[in-house]
Structures are given as C-alpha cells and as structure tokens.
Design a protein that fits this description.
By secondary structure, the protein is an alpha/beta fold. Among the domains are: 160 residues, 3-Layer(aba) Sandwich (Rossmann fold), CATH 3.40.50.720; 104 residues, Orthogonal Bundle (N-(1-d-carboxylethyl)-l-norvaline Dehydrogenase, domain 2). The protein is 51% helix and 9% strand. It is built from 19 helices and eleven strands. Strands 3-4-5-6-9 form a five-stranded mixed β-sheet, with helices on both faces. A two-stranded parallel ribbon has the order 1-2. The chain has a two-stranded antiparallel sheet with strand order 7-8. The chain is globular. It holds the Pfam family NAD_binding_2.
C-alpha cells in the first residue's frame, strides 16, 4: 500500500466512513491495521471475496493501482463478484482512453484523484465522472473527503461522462509540469547566474509567496530549499538531477498533437524531464544529434539493427532534408562502426557547434528582444544548452515530486538507490511506486 492509499483510507475514516482495506500483498494490510489504522474503524480483508463480503449493498469499491494493464487485470478479478448496481471507482492515474473503454464495457465510474500523500489525507481534489446515475450514491463520500476552500466548499463536483475526469486530471498534472519547469528555471538562474546562496533563495521564494505568486508549488519550493539533511547541510544540492515521470506528460503531449492544440510549454516540460534522465551522457559534456538519437532509441524498443551510415547517405538526395552534411555522418560511422549515437558530435560535429554558438545565442537574443517568435531556433538552442549542463535544476523537479507525491529521489553520491523523505513531519514512511515511462 502506497502512502497516498493509506492516507486516503484515513481521510475516509476521519469523515466517519467505515472502510474495508485490501491489498494483494496481505501483509501490508496487516501492517497497516497494526500501525496507522490502529484504533480506527478501518477493517481489513485477506482476499477480494472477503472484502466484498464485508461491504453494504450496493458495493462502492475504490481501487488505486498502476495505470494500464494492472487496472484491466484488477477489474477482471472483480467483475465476477459484482451485481448490477455495484459501483467500482478507478482512483488512479489511468489513461483516459482506457477509462472510456472500461466505462463503455462496464457502465462503471472513473475518478481522478489529485493531491499526493498529504492531499489524500487532508483533502484531495476529486474529479468524478462516468455513469451519472452513480453520482448521488458517492457524492456524500467524495465531497466529504475532498479539500475544502472558502466557507467549506468541497473541491469536488461531477465532471462529466465516461473518462472526462481522467482527462481533466491529465491536463491538470501537465499544467503542473509547466509550472514546475518555470520555477526550476528561475532556480537555475538564481543558482548559476546570480550565484545566490540557498538561504537567500529561500527568502526570495517566501517573499514571492506573499504576492500574486502565492501558490502551493512556490510554498513547497521554499520548504525544499531550506530543508537540511541529517548532517545539517541543505539536501537539495545532493539530489541527483534526473527527473522521473509516470506517463501523463506523454499522454497530454500526444493528445495535444492529436487535437492540434499548441501546448508548447507542456511539451518542453516533458522533454526537459526526458533530457534530465540522460545524466550519464550529460556529464560527458558531449553534444547530441537528437533526431538520430530517436533512431537509436527505436532499436531498443523494436530490437532493430539499423544501418545508420547508410541511412544518412540515402537522405543526401530524394528527401527534403538532403544535405551534403549528411555525408559527414557516414564518414563518422565508417571511422567507428561501433559509434554510439549520443557521441555523434564528439569530434568535428562538436567543434562545429562550439564555433557558432556565440552567433546562435546572439541571433536568438536579437529575435526575442524584437518579439519575433523563433520556436525552432530557441528549442534547438535550449536543448543544446540543457544537454551540455552537467547539473540541471531537475534535482528540484524530483524534490518537488517527492515532496507532494512520495515519488522518491536519488542522491548524486548514490545513483540507483531511491530514497523517501518525510519533508513535513506529517507524511508517512511509505513511498509511491518507482517507475518511469
């Protein structure tokens, strides 16, 4: 059981709802009942059959599992136990197309749950959708456990049909991607250009949070910046600048392309995380020809053996990107048949980029100051500048993900070892599942 699951159950208990908890790892239920749930009205179950036997009709079952096949597998196990009128609620981060299919198949109900490990206990934002006939049956529970604002208005209402809730949740999380990247770029300027001490940055973010910038992400950024490790030193500089993601960024970007909506900031925020994960390449300070790297990545997914040099030669004529420059790529592979794509610009290519970078910066700067949109110039330049940075502000991205979602982080000194920190003293010791898309 993840900490968010535990806290959601405790939230329901605090609102006087009796909950029966089940996990496929039965020992986790036993541990939960003996610790966090001790002294509450929460009951446990050792199997799905036992769980449903303890529920009142019509059954209202909320499940939170990893998006994708795991959701389908769980529903398959649950359906034989259900009667007409029983309600199942997918409280995870499922892809909205999957939810649409499931709603149509089952006339079930999907819900996106937002809020992270503390939000789950002290009030998440809830976006219920599906078969509208279900809403009156769950309204009291959902609005009871939802976050409250103003004079007590719940941050929960009926969103719409089928998968609208998961779609809204997806968009919300990707707006968050953009907000996070903007904050991290500000942090990057403060750290590497202005040379601000971390305590000074804390004060800046705390001051901003007293203005129209008042927001949760600004608030937790100040908290992260001031957080000290056990040795009394700030934790953030120790965190590995490699940010993870769990799929919604990719889904939103694909949807934006499908529906022709230019959400360029969200796209850049997704790619910034992808690039930050290339930590081992970045510390070599080697530029990357990213279109060719896409070909290289395809061999991993499809187990293809590609003739990279031959492909470059074929593109010299008959294709719209034909260029004599492509011959130099063939020469590079002839000289080193085992050449890794990420090192393609190691020699002549690297020097060519370095010799023109001052002019590149000046051209982009001139265009920006004149108000001329130059998305391709700027995006290519920003990719290059990000890629050649040994230390990106992605450590702050990962710290924020860990702070509000218990997604863990790695230390620069201990890559591969994922750590969970109780940043506020109110969180738990259980982290979210660690997986990247």
């Amino acid at each position: 059981m993840a900490q968010a699951d535990i806290n959601l159950i405790l939230n329901m208990n605090d609102q006087s709802f009796v909950v029966c908890a089940f996990n496929t790892t039965v020992s986790k239920v036993d541990d939960f009942l003996a610790s966090e749930a001790k002294g509450t009205k929460v009951v446990g179950a050792q199997s799905l059959k036992e769980m449903v036997s303890k529920l009142k009709k019509p059954w209202q079952i909320i499940f939170l599992v990893k998006a994708g096949q795991a959701v389908d597998d769980f529903i398959k196990k649950l359906v034989p136990l259900l009667d007409t009128g029983d309600i199942i609620i997918d409280g995870g981060n499922s892809e909205y197309r999957d939810t649409t299919r499931q709603c149509q198949d089952l006339k079930a109900k999907g819900a996106g749950v937002s809020g992270g490990e503390e939000g789950a206990q002290y009030g998440p934002s809830l976006m219920p959708v599906g078969n509208k006939e279900v809403w009156p049956h769950i309204k009291t529970i959902f609005q009871g456990i939802a976050a409250k604002v103003g004079t007590g208005e719940p941050c929960c209402d009926w969103v719409g049909d089928e998968a609208a809730g998961h779609f809204v949740k997806m968009v919300h999380n990707r707006i968050e991607y953009g907000d996070v990247l903007l904050i991290c770029e500000a942090y990057h300027l403060m750290r590497d250009v202005l040379g601000m001490a971390q305590d000074t940055m804390v004060q800046a973010f705390e001051d901003w949070n007293k203005t129209e910038l008042d927001s949760f992400l600004i608030e937790i950024t100040a908290n992260i910046l001031k957080f000290q490790d056990a040795d009394g030193k700030h934790l953030l500089p120790k965190i590995r600048d490699s940010a993870g993601q769990k799929g919604m960024g990719k889904w939103t970007t694909i949807s934006a392309l499908e529906y022709s909506v230019p959400v360029t900031l969200i796209g850049e925020a997704v790619f910034a995380r992808c690039l930050s994960s290339l930590k081992n390449e970045r510390i070599q300070k080697v530029p990357l020809h990213f279109q060719d790297h896409l070909l290289c990545s395809s061999t991993t997914y499809f187990v293809w053996t590609l003739n990279y040099g031959g492909i470059a030669l074929m593109w010299r004529g008959g294709y719209n990107i034909r260029s004599v420059f492509l011959g130099k790529i063939k020469d590079a592979f002839d000289q080193n048949p085992e050449l890794e794509l990420q090192n393609l610009l190691l020699d002549n290519f690297k020097s060519a980029i370095e010799s023109c970078q001052d002019f590149w910066w000046r051209a982009v700067s001139t265009g920006v100051q004149a108000g001329i949109p130059m998305p391709c110039f700027t995006t290519a330049l920003f990719f290059y500048d990000r890629y050649r940075h040994e230390m990106l502000p992605a450590n702050l991205i990962q710290a924020q993900r860990e702070y509000f979602g218990a997604h863990t982080y790695e230390l620069l000194a201990k890559p591969g070892q994922f750590i969970h920190t109780n940043w506020t003293g109110h969180g738990g010791s259980v982290s979210s599942l660690s997986y990247n898309t």
